[in-house]
Amino acid sequence: MKGFKDCPATVPGAHPDAGTEGPLQARICSALDAMGVWWMRLNSGARGRVRMAPRGTPDLLCVDPYLWIEVKRPDGKGKRGKNDQTRIAQEAFRDRAKRCGVTVVRAESVGEVVAAVNGARAKR
Treating both helix axes as pointing N-terminal to C-terminal, what angle do 22-34 and 110-122 enclose, rounded to 10 degrees? Predict the structure, then answer.
């Protein structure tokens, strides 16, 4: 099951990582597809009455190899209006995953994700 069609599209003519995490996430999704990774995109929080994954859940889940990916803008700027509760929830998720021996990649580039996937595959 591949989810590239669910990823945000890049904006023609824009720098691939400018403005939001979306363009970078789309490039990461393409790289995961090219590597044959089974992955899915997750939405956290709530949309109206519908509850999504808990706050702090990373953006992407790779099933094979098993790891989570939290996409971050390389310029270090977060979403406007993103509050400390979200950041704290993301840190708590990473801490809990680490205690359970689960890898969470905080990715600011496609290269970081490729290296993490290759590393996870090498551990098999």
Answer: 40
